[in-house]
Amino acid sequence: MSSGHHHSHAHADFDKAFAIGICLNLGFVAIEAFYGWKSNSLALLADAGHNLSDVAGLVLAWGGALAGKLQPNARHTYGWKKASILAAFANALLLLVAMGALAWEAAERLLAPPPITDQEGLTIMLVAGVGIVINTATALLFVRGGEHDLNIRGAFLHMAADALVSAGVVVAGGLAWWMGWGWLDPVVSLLIAAVILWGTWSLFRQSLHLLFDGVPDSVDPQAVHDYLAALPGISQVHDLHIWGMDTSQVALTAQLVMPGGRADDAFLQEATVQLHERFDITHTTLQVVNTPFTEPCGQWSRGSGAGHAGHHPHTGACDQTGRDRAEKHHHLKGEGHTH
Q: What mean pLDDT is predicted for residues 145-162?
């Protein structure tokens, strides 16, 4: 049996980025809430509330990243890597609820828009202009990690979206100041909610998918199956499982049926390396057998579609097969590693 770990996209240390982002946004929330209250601007108050939820989101993302660094033990053989997925999911859920509340309040104000004075419009523009700088600077702190980590990407997308939202508030303040359009404030609030909901839905869907051990969107399960099935001497790929260990690492377990021979270390190591190079699978456990002797969680179906695991690699552990077998043998019995 072979178990391999690769971490070419190793977790970057974003502790400093999280700390700076949280401090910047907390300061801006206080400024925005004060001037929103003073100018009676729902757009500013709503954006302050959203930025406060972003602070909570950054705290959640940071907590998830820190928990993922905890070392595995006999009871948690994969460590606490799922924490980053839980953080991404909680972050998305928090934003969806907050934006729903914002849309409701904005709709009520649209029916009875309050008047906005010239001074109030100018205040809205200036405060939101500061928000553009704060949110853009915070987003740039996370831009380099968003490609390979859903948790970091969530932080980046929220900050980038907020920069755009603040730009929208500047436009609303300018038009309200110039034209006296009090109704524009709740309209901009509705647009804010729509932008954030659109950007958050993907994060919500992907994090929920990973929570249920789904195949990450970056991996084509059919292509993985076909690669393993084409290895020399392999007649069948049995009980294949692919899932996200956290928001950046992918694990795979499978039985490879080789009726007429026996795989050596070089065979298993090459397969592990290729799975990493081709599909960015970072934790591979392969078992080569002459005859399959476990009950698979489901039958492989070519028509299940790439990118969606259906019932095969998407499934959870099944009676000492798949993940449980990999955990028990690799982490408790100390098999060899390939790096």
A: 76
